[in-house]
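Hey team,

Sharing the 4Fe-4S ferredoxin-type domain-containing protein run so nobody has to redo it. Sequence (604 residues) first:
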Amino acid sequence: MTHSHPSSRSASGHSLKPLLPYTCFSCSSPCMLVTLGVIGFLCSVYVAAMSSHAPSTGVSPVPLSSSMDSVAWVLHVAAPETRTHMGGNEEQWLLQDIGRDLEYEAIEGADEEGENDDTPKTERVCTRGIVLLVSITVLVSFLLYVLSHQPPDLSKPGMQLVFTIKDSGDALTIPAINAGRFNAVIDWGDGTDPGSIRNYQSNNLYHHYAEPGDYTVSIDGTFPGLSFKDWYSKALIRIIRLGDTGLTTLSWAFAGCTCLTEVGGTANLSGVTDMSHMFSGCSGLTTVDVSAWDTSGVTDMSRLFYGCKGLVSLDLSTWDTSSVYTMSAMFQSCASIKDLKVSSFDTSSVTDLSDMFNGLARIKTLDLSRWDTSAVTNMSSLFYGCGTRTLMISTWDTSRVTDMSKMFYSILLDTLDISLWDTGNVANMNSMFDSCPFLLSLPIGDWDTSQVTSMSGMFQDVRALTSLDIYRWDTSSVTDMSGMFDSCYSLADFDVSSWDTSSVTDLSSMFAVCHSLTTLDLSLWDTSSVDNMQSVFDNCISLFTLDVATWDTSKVTSMVNLFHNCESLTSPLHDRVWDVSSLENSHDMCTGCPEGMCDSLCPY
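Structure output:
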């Protein structure tokens, strides 16, 4: 049976334009994707209809293979109700005519194949499954397209940055990074049309300026991340505000922007977790007002202001740091800072404080008494080169700290109250108090040092220190004591006779240049593991009593300068010859000692 195509005129006799013009079916056009979405929906309805017996129509479902057959089936099922409720709208009547026509075709197909359909049930199920899968794919593609082509939200304050363009024709690129979905517009501040940004590689992130000058670039909408590292970093001179652009990261955002002088304004950082290296190397930065920033979600603040040599004061008292786990090198090399407000920091989640105040040579006071350091494991170089004369850290919980190496290296304090610290887990105390020229006392005799493996340079060059009460220390795990008391010019009174040195391999320069040291009882030391004894007592010019004759030197390879310039020795160091079977070098071993004081320890 053959049916003519329904009339193209409405009930009123007026001609109708096609509902979907041909020109809409471009593969990349919204109309095409809308149509695909409708087809996908109809295919889904078809699959649902094929799963039932359509009792309301009296027609059994038939296997249909094309998209138009799917439309025919849906309209066939809906036709009776449609004829009952449709009004006089001409488009509706046209759809009714099309539905009726397609209904006839569907019924005809059913008459011809219906009962005689011998298509295996498995094949029909597979066909329906494929149709459903295609439908879902088309619908998802359609939804993604719609979402990606939403207009940017311009209701929120955007980002504003000021750049200096030096020459006519100079280009500027906003270095967006792959940090999420972009949907923004950029106003370049020179009167040209704004550019639309849909992804981090958009051509609209690049712009030429006709004239030199300072330009305020505004970014509105969704712009999740940028990084000036190695990109036009010398052009940025001011951050008016970061605004509310859906930022997800600020890691390396403005690193190396040496001409950046001012940072201020509002910033919604609720989606940001990483601020590491954000202003790293911004040596020209002098003015920072970030009091309105929400940092509650940030977890990484490492090297945030690293190398900001121009900063004199910094107020971060309003920052919420409760989620931060690392503040490593956060202010390192900020050599000009005199006033730093961080006393209110919530550090309860912080595990790494290494190098945080390293190089703050001009800071005078640091009140850190309220800091919760119970989770911290790394305090290495924390106050390295710090100029503070007042340091409030006596109540810190250090029970989890494993690394205190160089923690107070070259500080200018004369007193340090850390006697109550729990050091039971510390493994590294390398150079912990190295080069502290004014330190007069250290009440650390009750420290638990049972886990420490390195004490190399621990008190090296602490020139003003006269005494140390550390005879109770457990040194059974220590392997390196090299330079431990090197250049302690004033140290005259301390007892280390009971120390367990059975694990020590390196004693080089341990007591070198201890000018005030007069006597040392080391007769009970176990040196069976030591391989390096170079310069152990070098230039101990006041030492007159030393008993080391019983030392086990069977593994020692170097005794260079061992007793060099021990000019005050009054009694021989020997009652037997040392085992030098492993010795490779003993140059100047006894040079400068009184004649006969140590010669017999070494057979050559």
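Residues 121-148 form the longest helix (28 residues).

Ping me if you want the raw files.
A.
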